[in-house]
Amino acid sequence: xxxxxxxxxxxxxxxxxxxxxxxxxxxxxxxxxxxxxxxxxxxxxxxxxxxxxxxxxxxxxxxxxxxxxxxxxxxxxxxxxxxxxxxxxxxxxxxxxxxxxxxxxxxxxxxxxxxxxxxxxxxxxxxxxxxxxxxxxxxxxxxxxxxxxxxxxxxxxxxxxxxxxxxxxxxxxxxxxxxxxxxxxxxxxxxxxxxxxxxxxxxxxxxxxxxxxxxxxxxxxxxxxxxxxxxxxxxxxxxxxxxxxxxxxxxxxxxxxxxxxxxxxxxxxxxxxxxxxx
Length: 278
Ligand SMILES: *[C@@H]1O[C@H](CO)[C@@H](O)[C@H](O)[C@H]1NC(C)=O
Ligand SMILES: *[C@@H]1O[C@H](CO)[C@@H](O)[C@H](O)[C@H]1NC(C)=O
Ligand SMILES: *[C@@H]1O[C@H](CO)[C@@H](O)[C@H](O)[C@H]1NC(C)=O
Ligand SMILES: *[C@@H]1O[C@H](CO)[C@@H](O)[C@H](O)[C@H]1NC(C)=O
Ligand SMILES: *[C@@H]1O[C@H](CO)[C@@H](O)[C@H](O)[C@H]1NC(C)=O
Ligand SMILES: *[C@@H]1O[C@H](CO)[C@@H](O)[C@H](O)[C@H]1NC(C)=O
Ligand SMILES: *[C@@H]1O[C@H](CO)[C@@H](O)[C@H](O)[C@H]1NC(C)=O
Ligand SMILES: *[C@@H]1O[C@H](CO)[C@@H](O)[C@H](O)[C@H]1NC(C)=O
Ligand SMILES: *[C@@H]1O[C@H](CO)[C@@H](O)[C@H](O)[C@H]1NC(C)=O
Known about the structure:
This protein is of the alpha/beta class. It contains 5 helices and 15 strands. The protein has helices spanning 2-22, 25-35, 52-55, 231-262, 266-277; strands at residues 39-40, 59-61, 68-72, 78-80, 95-97, 102-105, 119-121, 126-130, 143-145, 150-153, 167-169, 174-178, 189-191, 196-199, 217-218. The strands form 2 sheets. The protein has an 8-stranded mixed beta sheet, with no helix packed on it. A 7-stranded mixed beta sheet has the order 2-3-5-7-9-11-13. The chain is elongated. It binds 2-acetamido-2-deoxy-beta-D-glucopyranose (NAG) (9 copies). The site of one 2-acetamido-2-deoxy-beta-D-glucopyranose has 4 residues, from helix 3.
């Protein structure tokens, strides 16, 4: 009797320990809270009784199944906003793809808690409003795709803090204002097409083809070939030298006139002065 009870207790303890150890229980709860609070036209096989790591569509866990590190749910037919305090609890997530849905509302501000994100794919949704002001919270961000939404306002300059960024896609939104100086050497892909951006293309981004900027209201400088960054200081001496040229010509005329009074008549002096001015 006693032996049997102890054996059963050990078995129970062992299985419950195993389940707790092989399932990211908190992350799973966060996903259920997310899915239960957003309309989706395609069903998802997210059965609470099954393993999120091995059986749930779109979910990827880390090596020991203790955390969810990627969520890919493209074209599930989501409609409406993402409820706060749901996906933002997936604190270990690195890849988030919710592309090609009908998600609306602002960029979820609580995503700022997801500091391990390396890739954000939210393109082709119905997001609107301003972009997050402080991008420096995603230190490891490499791919940011927010194209085909209704984001407005300006492009935050804090994007320039993303030293790992390789791809930035903001095309087909309603972004306005000037393009900030995004001096990011790692950046390889840029798409700012079809917005309402104005002003010049900053020097740091002139290495990208002009097609990356089409469909905006940018000043014509952007069609000029890349200019060396030393241009503004070097423009001053050239202005100075043209001023020097002017005073030199004036000197020739004055000197000639003084000489002219002595040697030549005024008419000859004038014509020499005109020749010098040419
Ligand atoms: C859950 O995943 C495991 C491992 O891949 C598999 O053996 C099992 O058949 C799956 N169960 C269901 C109901 O899909
Ligand atoms: C990144 O993920 C690790 C677990 O893999 C976690 O401990 C850490 O808190 C996460 N960092 C942030 C900023 O959320
Ligand atoms: C996007 O949102 C607007 C209103 O903000 C709505 O009229 C439109 O139908 C939505 N489009 C999609 C694809 O959900
Ligand atoms: C970023 O990446 C580095 C190196 O891969 C890693 O050590 C770090 O935990 C990641 N997360 C954050 C929030 O920096
Ligand atoms: C970003 O999304 C657009 C669709 O709007 C797609 O054409 C493009 O290839 C994507 N870029 C990256 C780097 O994922
Ligand atoms: C952005 O759009 C919202 C409506 O979605 C509007 O209230 C707001 O004034 C716009 N902001 C800018 C800077 O255009
Ligand atoms: C970059 O991040 C630092 C802090 O990490 C912040 O002080 C600075 O303002 C940020 N730069 C921009 C352009 O936002
Ligand atoms: C913007 O929309 C047009 C027309 O729908 C499409 O051809 C183009 O690929 C879109 N651009 C991006 C960056 O998704
Ligand atoms: C750009 O701004 C003008 C008004 O300033 C507006 O009529 C137009 O719809 C805007 N275009 C986009 C793509 O937001």
